[in-house]
C-alpha cells in the first residue's frame, strides 16, 4: 500500500511525458507558470545561497548555464566562507535534511490517511448506492401497491356510485306514479339514508384521493431527495476522481521534494483531507436525513394503508347494506306488478262494459227507425206488389223483430253483464280498497310494531346497557378490591419471597448454629463419656486389682481364656462361622452363640484371636515368676484338640509360648536380683500317656514312673531326670531332648501329643547370702491332652484306651475341682496320675492358673461351651492362700509364709525368713541321660551347661 500503488504505468508515463521537457532535475516541484512557460521552483541550494547572500540571482536559467553558474557560485563560496561557516552550513544542511525526512514521513502518513479515507469513502458510497437502490425499489413497490389500491378503490367507488344511481333511478323512476296511486311509496327515510351514505362515500373517496395525492407528493419529494443525493454522489465521485489524479502526480513528484514543496504539498493534502472530512460529514448528514425521510414515508405509508383498509371495510359493509336494500325494493316491486296486473284486468272489464253500453245505445237509437220502417211497410201493403213486398217486409220485420229481440236479449244480457261487471267492479274496488286499507293498516301496524319493537329493543338495550354499566361498576369495584388484594398479595408474596430467599440463609445459619451447639454438646458428652470411660476403666482396673488380690487371698484358681484364630482346618461354610464375641468394655466376658442364643461366660481374662503371645505372657508372667520367691505354681492349658494349647504353651520358633518366655523371665529376674541371691534352676520334662508317667529326659522312655509320697511330706517321682539350666539356651536344649525322646516313642507325633499330657517342671532354688535363707519354688507348665468328649470320637482298641485314659484324667481333674469347690475333706487326687502329680499345684498352698483354649467356629461350639463351663467351675474353686517355702540355712528350719502374696516381688524384694519345712519339689532320683545334659541328684546341685543347641519346642 505504498507509493508504488499509485505509480501505475499509464499515469506515470503520462505525467512524465507531460513534465519531462520542463523539469530536468528531480528537485523541482509542481510546475509554475511564468507567462506561458512553466519554470521550476527555486532549489534548496539556491535558497541557502539566497539566505547566505552568496547568490542573488535566483532567476531561472537554461540547463547549460545552470551547471556552470553553480560551479562558479561554489567556487565563490569556497573562496569567501571560512571552515567554521562550512561546518555550520553542513549542520544546517543536516538539520534541514532531518526536517525534510520528518516532513516526508508526515506526507507519507498523510497520504496513507488520505488513501484510507478514500477507501472508506468508496465503501460508504457503495453502501449508500446500494441503500438508495433498495430504497428506490421499495418506493417503487410501495407506489405500485398504492396505485393498485387507489385504482381498486376508485373502481369500487364507481361501482358503488353506479349502484346508488341505479337505485335512485329505480326509486325515482317510472314506478313512482303507480306507487303513489297504490300508496306503496318507499319511505323517504331509507332513500335519504342511502343518499347520505353515497355522499359520505363520495367524501371518503375525496379524502382518499387527497391523501393519495399527498402521498404521491411525498413520494415525489422523496424521489427528488434521492435524485439530489444521486447528484451529490456523482459529484462526489467526480471529486474523487479529480482527487485521485493529483495524488498520483504528487506522488511522482514527491519522490525528491524540496522542503518548500513538501510543505506546500502537506498543506494541500491537509486542505484536501479537510474537504474530504467535511464531505464525509455532509454525506453522513444526508444519510441521516434520508433515513428520517424514509422513516416518515414508511410511517405515512403505514397510515395510508390503515386508512385504505378501514375504507375498504366500510365499502364492504355498505355494499352488503345496498344488496339487502335492493332485495327489499325488488320484493316491493313484485307486489306493485301484481297490483298493476289486477288493475289492468279491471280496466279491460270496464272497457268491455263500455262497449256493450255503446252497442245498446246504438241499438236503442236504431229502434224508432225500425218502427217508422214498419209503419211505412204497413202503408205500402195495399198493392199486390206491395203486398208481397209487405210480406217480405213482414218477414224482414219479423226477422228484424227477432233480431231486435235477440239484440234486446243481448242487450238485456249485456245489461245484466254490465250490472254484473259493475257489481264485480264494485266488489273489486271494495276489495281493492279493503286490501289497500288492510295493507295500510298492516303497514301502519308493522310500523307501530316496529316502533314498539325498536322502543322495546332500545329499552332492553338501555336496560342491558344499564345492567352492563352496573355490572361494569361492580366489576370495577371488584377489580379495585381485587387489585388491592392483589397488590397486598403481591406485597405479601414479595415479603414471603424475601423470607423464602433469606430462609436458606436462616436455615443455614440456624443449622450451623445448631450444628455448633450439637457439636459442642456432643463434644461435652464425648468428654463426659471419655471421663466416664476413663473412670470406668480405672474402676475396672481397680476391680481387677482387688479381684486379683481377693483371688490371691482366697487362693482361687485363676482362669484365662484364649480364642485361637480361624485356621484352614476349620473349613468353610456355615460350620466355619464365628460364634465367639467379646465385650468391648469388660475383658473378662466372652459370648458364645449357641442354638440361636448367646451364652455369657466370665473368666479372669479373655484373650481374643488377635492377642499376641506377649500379651498372654504379660498376664501370666507375675504368677509364673512367683516360683522364684518360693511358690508352687501350676499353669495348665485346657481345651479340645486343636484349640491352641500347644501354641500357647510352647509357641513357635519365632514366637515362643509361655514355657520359654517364663524361663527367659526367670533368668532375667535372677540376673536382676544380683549377687545377693544365688539361684539354681532345674527342669524336668515328662508326659502322662495312658495313665503312665514318662520321663522325657530319661534314658529309657518306656520306664514307668510312679508318683510317691515323701515320708517327709510332699510328692516325688523316683527316677525322674532333673537338668540344671543356667540360661535360655540350656532350656532350649532341654526342650529339644524332650521333644526328640517323645518323638522316638511315638509313630504320629501330632496325634500322640493330642492324647498325652505334657509337663514341664521347673524348680527354682534361691539362696540369700546375706540372710542365709533358701527359697524353693516350683513351676509346673502343663499342656493337657485334648478335652473333647470321648464318646463322640467313636474310638476303639488302642484309641479307646487312650481316650479312656484322657477321659479319666480330665474327669478326675473335674472331680478334684468339684471337691475343692465343695470344700470336701477328701479330695480325690489319687484317682489319676495327672491330679496326683498336680496335687501340689491344684490345692493347698499353690498358685494355679488355667488357660482355657477355645476354637472360634460353629463346628466346635459344643466343645467350646463344655470347656468354658469347666473353666467357670474351676474359677470358683478356692485353694486357699498360696505359701512360700523359705528355709533358714543355719538351722535348717523351713518357714512357710502364709501372708497374702502379690505377683513376683521383683529384684531385691525382701523375703520373710521363717523356720524351714521341706515342701519343695519331691526328692527325685536322677539318672544321667545320654544327651550330655547334667542331671542333678538334688534340686540344689548346680546345673551343667547343655552341650547342644536346639529349638524351644519340645512337645511337637
Ligand atoms: N493364637 C494362635 N495364633 C495362631 N495360630 C494358632 C493359635 N492358636 C492355635 N493356633 C494354630 O492352631 C493349630 C492347632 O493348635 P495346637 O496344635 O496348639 O492345638 P492343641 O490344642 O495343642 O492341639 P492338640 O490337643 O492336638 O495338641 C496349630 O496349627 C496352631 O499353629
UniProtKB/TrEMBL annotation:
Biased segments, Basic and acidic residues type: 890-900
Bias (Low complexity): 934-956
Coiled coil residues, start to end: 107-177, 219-335, 383-424
Annotated ranges, domain Kinesin motor: 556-877
GO-annotated biological processes: microtubule-based movement
Biased composition annotated in UniProt, kind: Acidic residues: 54-75
Family: Belongs to the TRAFAC class myosin-kinesin ATPase superfamily. Kinesin family.
PANTHER family: KINESIN-LIKE PROTEIN KLP-3 (PTHR47972)
The protein's name: Kinesin-like protein
Organism of origin: Potamilus streckersoni
Amino acid at each position: 500500500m505504498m507509493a508504488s500503488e499509485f505509480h501505475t504505468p499509464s499515469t506515470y508515463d503520462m505525467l512524465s511525458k507531460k513534465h519531462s521537457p520542463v523539469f530536468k532535475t528531480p528537485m523541482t516541484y509542481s510546475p509554475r507558470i511564468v507567462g506561458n512557460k512553466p519554470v521550476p521552483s527555486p532549489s534548496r541550494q539556491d535558497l541557502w545561497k539566497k539566505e547566505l547572500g552568496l547568490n542573488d540571482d535566483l532567476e531561472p536559467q537554461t540547463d547549460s548555464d545552470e551547471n556552470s553558474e553553480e560551479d562558479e557560485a561554489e567556487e565563490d563560496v569556497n573562496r569567501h566562507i571560512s571552515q567554521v561557516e562550512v561546518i555550520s552550513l553542513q549542520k544546517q544542511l543536516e538539520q534541514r535534511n532531518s526536517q525534510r525526512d520528518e516532513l516526508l514521513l508526515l506526507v507519507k502518513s498523510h497520504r496513507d490517511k488520505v488513501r484510507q479515507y478514500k477507501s472508506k469513502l468508496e465503501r460508504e458510497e457503495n453502501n449508500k448506492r446500494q441503500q438508495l437502490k433498495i430504497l428506490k425499489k421499495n418506493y417503487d413497490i410501495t407506489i405500485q401497491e398504492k396505485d393498485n389500491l387507489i385504482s381498486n378503490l376508485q373502481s369500487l367507488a364507481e361501482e358503488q356510485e353506479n349502484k346508488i344511481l341505479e337505485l335512485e333511478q329505480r326509486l325515482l323512476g317510472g314506478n313512482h306514479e303507480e306507487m303513489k296511486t297504490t300508496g306503496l311509496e318507499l319511505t323517504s327515510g331509507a332513500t335519504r339514508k342511502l343518499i347520505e351514505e353515497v355522499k359520505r362515500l363520495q367524501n371518503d373517496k375525496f379524502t382518499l384521493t387527497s391523501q393519495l395525492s399527498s402521498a404521491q407528493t411525498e413520494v415525489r419529494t422523496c424521489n427528488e431527495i434521492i435524485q439530489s443525493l444521486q447528484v451529490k454522489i456523482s459529484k462526489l465521485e467526480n471529486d474523487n476522481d479529480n482527487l485521485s489524479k493529483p495524488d498520483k502526480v504528487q506522488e511522482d513528484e514527491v519522490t525528491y521534494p524540496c522542503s518548500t514543496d513538501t510543505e506546500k504539498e502537506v498543506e494541500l493534502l491537509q486542505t484536501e483531507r479537510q474537504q474530504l472530512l467535511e464531505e464525509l460529514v455532509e454525506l453522513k448528514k444526508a444519510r441521516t436525513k434520508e433515513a428520517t425521510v424514509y422513516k416518515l414515508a414508511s410511517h405515512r405509508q403505514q397510515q395510508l394503508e390503515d386508512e385504505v383498509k378501514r375504507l375498504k371495510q366500510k365499502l364492504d359493509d355498505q355494499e352488503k347494506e345496498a344488496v339487502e336494500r335492493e332485495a327489499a325494493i325488488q320484493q316491493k316491486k313484485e307486489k306493485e306488478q301484481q297490483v298493476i296486473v289486477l288493475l289492468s284486468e279491471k280496466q279491460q272489464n270496464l272497457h268491455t262494459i263500455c262497449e256493450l253500453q255503446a252497442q245498446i245505445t246504438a241499438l236503442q237509437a236504431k229502434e224508432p227507425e225500425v218502427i217508422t220502417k214498419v209503419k211505412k211497410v204497413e202503408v205500402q201493403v195495399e198493392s199486390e206488389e206491395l203486398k208481397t213486398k209487405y210480406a217480405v217486409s213482414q218477414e224482414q220485420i219479423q226477422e228484424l223483430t227477432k233480431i231486435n229481440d235477440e239484440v234486446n236479449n243481448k242487450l238485456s244480457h249485456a245489461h245484466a253483464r254490465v250490472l254484473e261487471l259493475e257489481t264485480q267492479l264494485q266488489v273489486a274496488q271494495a276489495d281493492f280498497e279493503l286490501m289497500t286499507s288492510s295493507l295500510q293498516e298492516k303497514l301502519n301496524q308493522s310500523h307501530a310494531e316496529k316502533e314498539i319493537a325498536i322502543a322495546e329493543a332500545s329499552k332492553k338495550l338501555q336496560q342491558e346497557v344499564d345492567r352492563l354499566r352496573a355490572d361494569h361498576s361492580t366489576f370495577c369495584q371488584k377489580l379495585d378490591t381485587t387489585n388491592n388484594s392483589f397488590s397486598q398479595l403481591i406485597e405479601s408474596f414479595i415479603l414471603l419471597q424475601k423470607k423464602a430467599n433469606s430462609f436458606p440463609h436462616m436455615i443455614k445459619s440456624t443449622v450451623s448454629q445448631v450444628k455448633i451447639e450439637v457439636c459442642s454438646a456432643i463434644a461435652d458428652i464425648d468428654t463426659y463419656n471419655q471421663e466416664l470411660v476413663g473412670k470406668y476403666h480405672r474402676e475396672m482396673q481397680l476391680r481387677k486389682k482387688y479381684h486379683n488380690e481377693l483371688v490371691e487371698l482366697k487362693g482361687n484358681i485363676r482362669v484365662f481364656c484364649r480364642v485361637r484364630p480361624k485356621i484352614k482346618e476349620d473349613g468353610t461354610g456355615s460350620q466355619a462361622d464365628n460364634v465367639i464375641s467379646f465385650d468391648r468394655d469388660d475383658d473378662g466376658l466372652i459370648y458364645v452363640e449357641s442354638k440361636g442364643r448367646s451364652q455369657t461366660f466370665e473368666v479372669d481374662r479373655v484373650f481374643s484371636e488377635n492377642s499376641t503371645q506377649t500379651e498372654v505372657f504379660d498376664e501370666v508372667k507375675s504368677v509364673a515368676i512367683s516360683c522364684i520367691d518360693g511358690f508352687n505354681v501350676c499353669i495348665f492349658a485346657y481345651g479340645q484338640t486343636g484349640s491352641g494349647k500347644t501354641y500357647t504353651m510352647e509357641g513357635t520358633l519365632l514366637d515362643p509360648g509361655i514355657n520359654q518366655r517364663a524361663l527367659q523371665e526367670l533368668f532375667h529376674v535372677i540376673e536382676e536380683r544380683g549377687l545377693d541371691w544365688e539361684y539354681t534352676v532345674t527342669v524336668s520334662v515328662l508326659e502322662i500317656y495312658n495313665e503312665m508317667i514318662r520321663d522325657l529326659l530319661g534314658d529309657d522312655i518306656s520306664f514307668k514312673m510312679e508318683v510317691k509320697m515323701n515320708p517327709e511330706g510332699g510328692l516325688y517321682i523316683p527316677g525322674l531326670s532333673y537338668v540344671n539350666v543356667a540360661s535360655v539356651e540350656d532350656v532350649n536344649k532341654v526342650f529339644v531332648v524332650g521333644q526328640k525322646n517323645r518323638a522316638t516313642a511315638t509313630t504320629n507325633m501330632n496325634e500322640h501329643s493330642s492324647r498325652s499330657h505334657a509337663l514341664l517342671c521347673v524348680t527354682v532354688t534361691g539362696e540369700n547370702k546375706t540372710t542365709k535363707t533358701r527359697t524353693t519354688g516350683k513351676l509346673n507348665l502343663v499342656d493337657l491332652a485334648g478335652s473333647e468328649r470321648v464318646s463322640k470320637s467313636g474310638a476303639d482298641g488302642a484309641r479307646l484306651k487312650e481316650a479312656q485314659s484322657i477321659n479319666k484324667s480330665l474327669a478326675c481333674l473335674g472331680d478334684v475341682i468339684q471337691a475343692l469347690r465343695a470344700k470336701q475333706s477328701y479330695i480325690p487326687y489319687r484317682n489319676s496320675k495327672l491330679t496326683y502329680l498336680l496335687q501340689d499345684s491344684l490345692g493347698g498352698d499353690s498358685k494355679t492358673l488355667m488357660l482355657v483354649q477355645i476354637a472360634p467356629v460353629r463346628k466346635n461350639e459344643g466343645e467350646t461351651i463344655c470347656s468354658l463351663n469347666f473353666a467357670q467351675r474351676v474359677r470358683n474353686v478356692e485353694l486357699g492362700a498360696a505359701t512360700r517355702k523359705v528355709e533358714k540355712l543355719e538351722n535348717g528350719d523351713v518357714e512357710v509364709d502364709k501372708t497374702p502374696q502379690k505377683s513376683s516381688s521383683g529384684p531385691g524384694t525382701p523375703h520373710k525368713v521363717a523356720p524351714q519345712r521341706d515342701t519343695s519339689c519331691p526328692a527325685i532320683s536322677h539318672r544321667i541321660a545320654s544327651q550330655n545334659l547334667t542331671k542333678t541328684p538334688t534340686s540344689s546341685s548346680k546345673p551343667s551347661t547343655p552341650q547342644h543347641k536346639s529349638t524351644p519346642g519340645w512337645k511337637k
